[in-house]
Amino acid sequence: MIRPALQIVQMREGVRRVSGLQILVVRNRVFFFADPVVNIHPSGEDLAEIARLAAEVARNFGFTPRVALLS
């Protein structure tokens, strides 16, 4: 399921991970939730990259991100 999507939406140079990102709007507040989704046993570096990329998406939408990792 992921391979066809990646063939259509090209990954940027230097990005080596795929993850999910959900945007939740609750009472005029916006939350961006990243999820490793298809990454089996991601390393700490993988999780840090996913968090960094999610923060970048939030910035692209005009938000100042605050990052937290939940387990």
Essential attributes:
2 helices, globular, 20% strand, 71 residues, two-stranded antiparallel sheet
Terminal CA distance:
26 Å
Structural class: alpha+beta
Q: What best-fitting shape do the alpha-carbon axes yield?
A: globular
Query: Can you count the helices?
Result: 2
Number of strand elements:
2
Return the average pLDDT rounded to an integer.
85
Q: Give the H and E element order.
A: HEEH
Q: How is the main sheet built?
A: 2 strands, antiparallel
| Strands side by side in the biggest sheet | 1-2
Q: How much of the residues is beta strand, in percent?
A: 15-25%
Helix content: 25-40%
Structure commentary:
- This protein is α+β, with helices and mostly antiparallel strands and 71 residues long.
- It is 34% helix and 20% strand.
- The chain contains 2 helices and 2 strands; from the N terminus they run H-E-E-H.
- It has helices at 2-8, 44-60; strands spanning 20-26, 29-35.
- A two-stranded antiparallel sheet has the order 1-2.
- A hairpin with a 2-residue loop joins strand 1 (20-26) and strand 2.
- The chain is globular.
- The two termini are 26 Å apart.
- The mean pLDDT is 85.
Secondary-structure map:
Blueprint: H1 2-8, E1 20-26, E2 29-35, H2 44-60
Antiparallel strand pairs: 1-2
Quick structural gist:
The protein is built from two helices and two strands, in the order αββα.
